[in-house]
Amino acid sequence: MSGRQIDRRVLADVVLAAVVGALGMGVAAFDDGTDALDLTLIALASASLALHRAAPRAVLAAATLLGTAYVVHAHPGPLSALPVLGAVHTAARVGHRGLAGAASTVFLAGYVATGPGTQEVAERAGLLAGWFLCAVVTGLADRNWQAYLRQTEQRAQEAERTREEAALRRAGEERLRIARELHDSLTHSISIVKLQAGVAVHLARKRGEEVPPALLAIQEASGEAMRELRSALQVLRADEPSGTPALLVERARAAGLAVDLTVTGDERPLPPAVDRAAYRIVQEALTNAARHAGPAKITVRIDYGGDGDGGGELTIDVDDDGAADPARQPVPGTGLTGMRERVTALGGTLRATPRAEGGFAVRARLPMGETV
Question: Which residues, in sequence order, are bridge partners of residue 367?
């Protein structure tokens, strides 16, 4: 929040307190029995409203005590409740419903107990009770509205972020597809051309014949084409993950997350596609835990199944004990969808769901025999 916004809020709070105080003292001035103590109580109760954003509970307590003392001493009309009404509304808006209700009860009890037992007093007390109920209800409505606005803003930001991530992921996958196609087709063909040209040059020189300039040009051009193609492939593959799940865990710890990593089985190099998928799964699971789990403990378990001869299954489990509700299944976002697509493309399985004991669990099974 900018300094200008803060200044405007402070000014608005001061104006509110001044207006309430002016109304209260203006009405009190028409009562013959009003004295200096009454005006002081009105002024202090109204002035406390200037701090209602910074200290809502303290303002509620001060306005209630001062307002009750005023009605006990002066027996004024219903407008004397304005400072307490403002404090009750603010307390309900920030979630202190019980305190708001208790303050309303205290003020109404003081208003009724000290006034003359007439029908007029009862009617005024009923009117004030309705005002206090409205103050609590409007405070709760304002709280829910602000929460709705915050959620809408967060969803908009999340949607924008996921759109950007999805676009980057699709672009990266397309670059990798092009790189594989180039490697599998052009690299093989150019290698054959270069090899055949080299063999022809070697045989010509071995027989003592003059090597045709066209053959030398083919040999040189094919070599240059191979070097340029390798450079292009390096650029296309520049977005591949650089690191390991262990490095992701270390980064998460450095960011303040409580993460434990356990690796079991015969740890060994993985096929590139499986290695990339494992990296992305751990990365997305840690990102989701950091965003949604709150102050939770996260456990990452990686198991290298099989005998190490190219078969077996890589198992990735990421659990947290965060705030996920077992009764509510998550709505798959771009991250979970991307993880599932990667796993399915490799012939594996993915399960991402809240745990029965609370928190969230990601279970991925990747066959290590695939070399896609």
Answer: 313
